[in-house]
Each structure stands twice: as C-alpha cells, then as structure tokens.
Amino acid sequence: MATASELDFFTSKLQDAWMPIYIVNNAGKIIFENPSIVSLLKTSHLNEMFVDLFKEKITFNEFRLQAQLEQKQAEYFKRDQTKMYQIRNSAQANHFCDALIIKHRLILDGQENIMIQIEDITEELQLKNQLQYMASFDALTRLPNRHSFNNDLKKLNEEVERYGRKYALFYFDIDDFKRYNDTYDHAFGDHVLKAVANAILATKRKTDLLYRVGGDEFVFIANNINTREQMLAIGKKLAFAVDNIPLEAHPRIKISIGCAQIILSTENLFSDRIKLADKGCFLAKSLKRQKSTLVDAATMDHFTAD
Predict the structure, then answer these.
(1) For residues 148 and 105, what is the distance between their CA atoms, to the nearest angstrom?
(2) What is the rounded CA–CA span in Å between residue 61 and residue 58?
(3) pLDDT at position 233
(4) What is the mean pLDDT of residues 48-74?
(5) Could you tell me the pTM of the whole model?
(6) Cα 46 to Cα 24: distance, rounded to the nearest angstrom
(7) 235-263 burial, b if ≥16 CB within 10 A, otherwise e?
(8) What is the DSSP string of 103-126?
(9) Alpha helices in 164-264 (DSSP H)
(10) What structural domains does the chain harbor?
(11) Residue among 36, 40, 41, 38 nearest 17 (CA)
C-alpha cells in the first residue's frame, strides 16, 4: 500500500470534492471514500469489497492494468474508462440510481490502485427518456406517432425484402371528425380519438402495430397476412370495433379504412402501399355509409363489418 503521508496528501485533496469518489486497492477493497459518496449511497462502505456495491457482478479484474504503466514521480493517475451502472442505495434496498462510473489508474508509491468517480445521472437519464418518449409517442392516445412510424417502416421493409414476410396495412381516419370539435368541444374530440385508439388496441394482436400519424389519422399494420381474405377479415374486425364504441346521446363514431397487402413485389414496399391505402380510405369516406367502411385499395371493392 502507499505510504501514509502520500495517501493522506492525495485523499485530503478529495475530501471536499463534490463528485463521489472511492479509492480501491489492488485487492478490491475500498480504502478511501469521500463524504459525497456516503451522501449518495446513504451509508459508508469503507473496507468493503468493491464488487458487493453493485447490482451487477463486477470483478476487480475489469479495473486491472492491461499493461505495466510507466511510473512518473509527479503522476498519480491516468484516465482509464467510463461505464454506466446502476448502484444500490443502501437506504432503499430496491432502488438503484443510474450512475456514470469513471475509473482512473492510480499509482501511489509503486502500488496499483483505482480511483473511482461516481456521477449520479438518474435525473439526466429520466429527462432524456422523457424527451425520447415525447418525440416518439402521441401524448393524447399514447400511441407511437408519425416519427415512430417512419422509423419502423425501414425495419419492416427490410423484413419483407430479407425474409419475405407479409403484412397488411390499414390507413384510416374518423368520419366527420371536425363535427365533434365544432358541435361539442375539443375535449369531446379528444375523447373520441382516445375511444377509437382503445377500441382498435383491444383487437390488436401482440405482433400488430398501431400508430396515430396525424390529427384523426391512424395506421394499423397486421403481421403474417398471407391472403386477401385474412386482410379483409382483420379490416372488418377494426370496423366492427369502432362501430360498437358506446357513445350515449352522440352520433355513432365511424371510420373509413383503406387497406393494402405488403408483399415482395414492388420497390418502396410500404411507401407505395401507404399511398394506395390512403386512396382506399378516401373512397371509403366518399361512400358516406352509416357504418365504418373498408376498401380494398387494390380492387376498390368496399365492405362493412356486417
């Protein structure tokens, strides 16, 4: 171990550091901790083994030198690596704060040690995750939004081209949606949007995808659809779910659906079919039926849930 005077000198400089710091010897034992780390973890770990402080099983071998360091008289440490872990807060057994672990190689009197700085980044990660969620999900319905849809299209195209997977795409919007906002209020319009989203979600299989891509526009993608009959059956199921939304003392909610199969036959597989399904949706709306209407965009045949 380093001489007392040298260790005392070095650690005295770290006592008032705002960042939590450990010094671990080459046996894996903590030989120094500053007040900041005790404050973060709510307890002292002096003389404990470093591996016991972490959720993951981390051995001291991760911190060993890969090659012999050149020792210099005035050089106490060299920057090594940065990793992110979850650290146990001893006051709350089931709580782990997200932490950035910055490791330094520390040489004191020829003895190899590791100085570990720990930065609590829990709030930073929470904010980052919140911003990522806001960028990818619709705040009202909590469905993936157009940004998520566009990102997923790249993956779905690859799956069709590489593995020959078959999908069906359903593009739909709410008939006369503006009427709900104008006749009642925007709060009721929001209620209609959520009711439609929830009704479709109730029919969704685990592998299917649902997005809100615009004001009252949605996209539903069904996986493993091998025939036109399967596609139409799912489309009628969507129409039936919306037709049966309970909405007392208000006009029935209806949707217009355009659908198209996604198969390995054209370039720009999904973008091509989105345009086709959108045309089907427009035709379904123009029919002005009393129930939700489904149009096969390839043939322009139209159906209801009956």
Answers:
(1) 43
(2) 8
(3) 95
(4) 39
(5) 0.67
(6) 10
(7) bbebbbbbbeeeeeeeeebbbbbbbbbbb
(8) EEEEEETTEEEEEEEEEE-HHHHH
(9) 177-179, 186-203, 228-243
(10) 4-125 (3.30.450.20), 137-303 (3.30.70.270)
(11) 36
